[in-house]
Amino acid sequence: MAGRRGVPLVVPLPFLLTGVCAAALFGLLLPWVAPEAVQSPDFPHVLALVHLATLGWLTMTIMGASLQLVPVMIVAPLRATRFLPWQYPVYTGGVVLLLSGFWWMRPWLLAAGGVVIVLAVLHYVVVLGITLVHATTRPLTLRFLAASLLYLCLVVSLGLTAALNMQFGFLGAGADRLLLIHLTLGVLGWLSSLLMGVSYTLVRLFALAHGHDDRLGRVIFVLLQGSIVGLALGFLFSWLALILLGGGVLIATVWLFAYDFWRMFRTRHRKLLDVTQYHSMAAVVSFCLVVPAGIASVVFGWQQPAVLAALGLAALVGWLGQSIIGYLYKIVPFLVWHTRYGPLVGREKVPLMRELVHERWAWLSWWLINGGLVGVILSALLAWSILLQITSGLLGAGLVLAAANIAGVVRHLRKHPSPAHR
Q1: Is 185 in contact with 151 (CB distance < 8 Å)?
Q2: 12-344+351-409: which CATH architecture?
Q3: Interhelix angle for 215-237 vs 240-266, to 10°?
Q4: Cα 2 to Cα 11: distance, rounded to the nearest angstrom
Q5: Domain segments of the chain: what residues?
Q6: Which of 252, 256, 259, 258 is nearest to 286 (CA)?
Q7: pLDDT tier at 209, thresholds 50, 70, 90
Q8: Which pLDDT tens digit goes with each residue over 169-208?
Q9: 3 state DSSP class of 269
Q10: pTM
């Protein structure tokens, strides 16, 4: 991540900080909302918590990180940036409206928030789309990113349709099919596709795995897109054969990605693994387990609320959220160090980039997140209500601690007087 290709810190940082704050809020609310989730996944507070994770935490963070990382990966500046200063307040405002609509179940707030989010997403897609067209290099990550942007447009459009349906009820029995497609394109098409693609850049970068090639990654890209489209069409037409085919290809693709992920680590030059790599490994393990479990739940009709809650947490926290937390331990310190200490290198003593993150806190939060997640899933499936709240509290504490650790890096931006002026 050599340089930011002219992207000022004020562009990505608000997204990243808001994202980690949303992760902390998710952790704080989880012990209170988890008992509702195992009773019914469509309770208002449960829906609010899910969208807090998907829009307030995951998508918010990805927006900020991509606006900083994409110009670096494709060696080209951001394009169409005239209205970029409005991206953060407009998107954040839309998310707040939508979450308020879910929490208090106000359809008009859902519709208003959905419209604002769609506008913000379209602007974001235009900015990145035009930037990608002018790329001077075309790494494998670019293919995943381009596909994920298309899915993002579809996801928010389907979400807005669902919000309007809550107000006017025009979908009828088709609402259930729309929800399945919305989930498929959101969790797999937008979030998972993007994170898989980004892994081919960031894992190599952070582990110094420069000897890894793209051959298997290109196959994974084609299989992933085919499986996502197949599943979405299968849900649209209620065609079990297509669902089975798409689900089978998806499972094989995820396991193939895990193998390629292992190949990246095998070729690494940095032998000592840090907490970022352990978050990535735990996330990929979760991904390999949750995808076949999710396909099985659809095929065999395992639609009990506890099963859906367990699958949702495994996907949103175990795979997606954990991946993002691990990467933020590198991205945020880089941005802050580059801005605060970069100009001082060679003139005075500056801290190492890794010293901006509290290492013990990072490891403690890793254990709390992963131990708590396993406990929550088992407690939900076995209907142990008291243990569910205890383990939810542990998982939530891990998320709060990780968020505080990442957000605390920003304190280094405060100007400290140099020794000569004290």
Answers
A1: yes
A2: Up-down Bundle (1.20)
A3: 160
A4: 17
A5: 12-344+351-409
A6: 258
A7: confident
A8: 898 888 999 999 999 999 999 999 999 999 999 988 888 8
A9: coil
A10: 0.94
